[in-house]
Amino acid sequence: MTTYDDRASLTDLTATAERVRSSVEGVIEGKPEVVRLSLTVLLAEGHLLIEDVPGVGKTMLAKTLARSIDCSVRRIQFTPDLLPSDITGVSIWDQQRRDFEFKPGAIFAQIVIGDEINRASPKTQSALLESMEERQVTIDGQTYELPSPFMVVATQNPVEMEGTYPLPEAQRDRFMARVSIGYPSAEAELQMLDVHGGVNPLDDLQPVAHAHDIVKLIDAVRTVHVADPVRRYAVDLVAATRTHPDLRLGASPRATLHLLRAAKASAALSGRDYALPDDVQALAVAVLAHRLLPTAQAQLNRRTAEQVVLEILQHTAIPAAPQQQSGLTMGRGAPTFGQQPPRRL
What we know:
The chain is of the alpha/beta class. Helix content is 42%, strand content 15%. It contains 14 helices and 13 strands. Strands 3-6-9-1-10 form a five-stranded parallel beta sheet. A two-stranded parallel sheet has the order 2-11. It has a two-stranded antiparallel sheet with strand order 4-5.
């Protein structure tokens, strides 16, 4: 198994991630931070929720990420009449065999694109719960394992748009991160007209990594070292959401785990085999905000969950940066945090 103890392997794995990033950025113009977050979630074994208004490239981002990796891909168009069995599969009676035969649904793929997930009813949305958390599907008492790697990339229109259903809290909590693409800059939009105006850029997009490469990357991310002060910092951030006066629902322990996994993946993408408080800090809004429910008073005051997370970041002390050391390897000389005064954002 490839680990971070092998420095040459670290270079190779970082290069693989860089190829995927460059491939996606070749289609999604002017949004490097969105592309990096998408790749971070993939390597952290999470699922990504892309929320924004129509026409800004939500589905294009999901398709580009999927096509850049030589994995099996299935797309599900969520509609009000979509049934849970359309996602998970169904057992059908076989007249010749005189037995039930299981017909796998669209969830049996390595990259599953859920387009406009909030246009389906909460009952249909709940069909994803087991597969996203346990990476398996149970039908008629029989459990079926899902392939590896496995990632759900869902797009969503804002809940105030007509004909949509808000995602249940349990569903949102299973997405590691939420990202909003936003409108492109004028320069990026001009470049988009040149690239997308004549042909579909996905037609010529070729995979730059294989499924087994992604599995190796995920295995490497698991070995990234996280010092105790960094763990405590992540716990303090999540705990602060549970007592904040502007929130009626804070983040769950699953959010703490997702925040730590995402920080490890971010460190790996930066070529480090240890996580820093900065990794946790940079991902806090994307990982925590979509799980939080503001109080009625906060909503009247137009306070958003993102603003609350930023406020918590401002008031939570973080450990000092580790001392710079050369030749750091996993388990040997991992960075330690000195007793320095906590610095603020």
